[in-house]
Amino acid sequence: MKKWITNNTGLKVVSIIFAFMLWLIVVNIDNPNIKREFTNVQVELTNEEAITDKEKVCSVIDNSDIITITVRGPRNIVESLSASDFKATADLRELTDFEFVPIEVQALRYKDKLTSIESRTKNVKVSIEELSVKQFAIRASVTGTPAEGYAVGNKTLSQNIVKISGPESIVSTINRVAAEVNVSDMSSDINTSVSLTVYDGNDKAIDTSRLKLSVDSVNVTVEMLQTKEVPIRAGTSGTPAEGYSVIGDVVCAPETVTIAAKDTVLSGISEIRIPDEAIDVTGLDKSFEQIIDISQYLDEDITLISDAEFLVSVNIEQLQKKEIYYPVSSITIENLSDKFKTIYTNFDPLRLQIWGTEEKIQSLESTDLTVTVDLSSIEQPGNYTVPVVVNLPEGYNVSEEYTVDIHVYEGNLDYSEITSQTTNVNTNTAEGAQEKTEESSEDSKNSSAGDSEED
Questions:
Q1: Per-residue confidence at 24, pLDDT binned at 50, 70, 90?
Q2: Which domain holds residue 7?
Q3: For the chain, what is the radius of gyration of the CA atoms?
Q4: Domain end among 291, 318, 345
Q5: 114 and 205 share a domain?
Q6: E strands along 21-160, which residues?
Q7: Distance (Å, whole) CA 88 – CA 32
Q8: Residues 404 and 285 in one domain
Q9: What end-to-end distance do the CA atoms of the chain give, in Å?
Q10: Beta pairing partners, 225
Q11: Cα–Cα separations (whole angstroms), residue 415 to 48, 188, 350, 384, 411
């Protein structure tokens, strides 16, 4: 056996070398070394405390932390790898004076079987800035359009403050922070969690990848309200200059307003009224317009959907005076106790000074108005001077107060009582009253005063 092993030793060595070479040839033909590139490999910055401990912040420039690497090794190994099988790091402790950080790449698999790993980009280019920390109010906002007949009501946040830290050059551009909720086609209340959006002064969203937010999202509750269109009504307060009057209704433009509230609230609203005190015409002698913010006249549980400002127009015109003689026999007596009867002690007609526009005043007659007296306060017989109420058609007014003299009695009329002195007395002589009574006997018997002596 030993002889067999030691015989032809040289030939056997040559055979072994030849076999090994043949194996290498076969392997290289079947599984050769290849080169492959992997793109978009993210470089991780490590040991950031080397910067942050100095109250500074590091920012990558020109996307230099996204690299392409070249890998060499056996085909079967290299082809089984992906970009995630490599880890690229840049240690900020090695930051140079030129603000470069060397990149190191290592394989997470088959490290000992790969021939080489190289990165085209050798360094991450960074910018070192002062660290800025600020607090911002979070504002809830909505996007989209609710379902028809609905509007957005109150918006409530689970948290309304966020602290943002990052490069001073970015933090200084922040204008507002919003929690936005999409309300498209919604008709019921919404409760959802939304991510925060940071906006600059031009209302453009800011990339927050280089910022650190104390909270990334908040819960938002959005109240959905039903809408209703109602008319606006307005009046005036005060008195225009002498001889002038407000003519017609106050005109609002637009005439209606759209409001939103819960259904139980909306059902009880038929109009929005602007208080008379809001439109003062005292001493004015010409028409005018006024802008009024109607939002101040809405209850807290009502949301205004339309514009808040409305234009109101008030028409003031100069009045013409006309004197109307109104017979006392035509005065209507109201609220007289059934036990009493009455007779006027002065039958001179009332000389009423009526004011109205030139167009209307010419056609006004005594039959167009009514005059009444209220005797509800009369508790005993006697002579009284009582005020009259002049009821005029729309667009007319009286500028004076008028009274009539009246005698209140029980049973049969005793003319001697007409001259007696009582509360609020304003009498004529019995003879004068009797004479006036005889001159208008038929009229007074048919008047509301004379007819109070009914059988």
A1: low
A2: 1-28
A3: 50
A4: 318
A5: no
A6: 33-46, 56-60, 66-74, 86-91, 100-107, 116-119, 123-143, 150-157
A7: 26
A8: no
A9: 169
A10: 151
A11: 117, 80, 23, 15, 12
Per residue in 50-90, pLDDT (tens digit) is 888 888 888 888 899 999 999 999 999 999 999 999 999 99
Nearest to 425 by CA among 379, 385, 373, 377: 385
Q: Which residue has the tokens 């030129």?
A: 98
Strand-pair partners of 390: 371
Nearest residue to 89 via CA among 159, 42, 38, 143:
42
* CA distance linking residue 153 with residue 173, whole number of Å: 31
Could you read off the pLDDT of 304-328 as tens digits, one per residue?
888 889 999 999 888 888 888 899 8
Q: Any residues with CB less than 8 A from the CB of 112 and at least 6 apart, and which? A: none
Both tokens of 225, joined, read 């309200």
Q: 331 and 432: one domain? A: yes
Task: Tell whether 196 and 178 lie within a shared domain.
Answer: yes
94 three-state secondary structure: helix
Q: Is the pLDDT of residue 421 over 80?
A: no
| Alpha carbon distance 66, 103 (integer Å) | 11
* Number of other residues whose CB lies within 10 A of the CB of residue 42: 12
Paired tokens of 258? 């759209």
pTM of the model: 0.52
Q: Confirm if 177 and 249 have CB atoms less than 8 A apart.
A: no
